[in-house]
Amino acid sequence: MMVATSVKRWLSAAAFGALALGTASTGVMAAGGAVDLPEQEWSFEGIFGHFDRGEVQRGLQVYLNVCASCHGLQYVAYRDLGDIGYDEDQVKAIAAQYEVPAGPNQDGETHDADGYPLMRTALPSDRFVSPFPNENAAAAMNGGAVPPDLSLMYKARPNGADYIYALLTGYYDEPPEDFDLPEDFEMMAGLSFNAYFPGHQIAMAPPLYGDDVEYADGTEATIEQEARDVTAFLAWAAEPNLERRKNMGIKVILFLIVMTGLFYASKRKIWRDQH
Asked: Using CB atoms within 10 A as the burial measure, which of 77, 144, 243, 265 is most buried?
């Protein structure tokens, strides 16, 4: 579950920045008309929806290996991973792969003799470590653009899960022959074609290639599988209380149904006695 260090993966991870730039409608508007997002079935949809722990854990692997070198999760703490099935030791091991600023030492110093910040091993209570020390550094390393934080990416668009999955699997080496494009459409040099990105041309390379990770549970790491898993993980990151909220909602509905029945029975008894 170590963060990938190859140049290809570092560059391709930046493609997740495209998620922040997509359309705000359920259909992506192309120059030749609207393209509907393929509808997917997700375990966390619906009133009884819940997160598939295996799916979300695989998504974490994709995030750590592909996305984390460019994109942070500033609203998620490592200890939150306990909610998706990791025990205390596993959470500590994941956090221990990273370092965070240590803060002032006993002498009040925040930097060492060479001017570098004092660092310590990350703890479960720490938030996910940002890949860059600040936004200026992020922009300098990404051609002037700051890769967006992925904590709330699932909420950034209607049908967020379908959109993320479609975008990640919508890359083509060249536009498909049967795709509805205007006659004057021409791919610009250095851009990639994506069926679900506005204008269909993305400056970022495809983030997923298949076999980007070796899943701990032995699942085959196809592009579609990786896209599905990381989408589920980002949905959990944005809605960590989804299951508790839905469970509470069901309990409230059942309570209201019971109370309605009691009120109705009381009303019939009261008025029967009046007659």
From this structure: 77
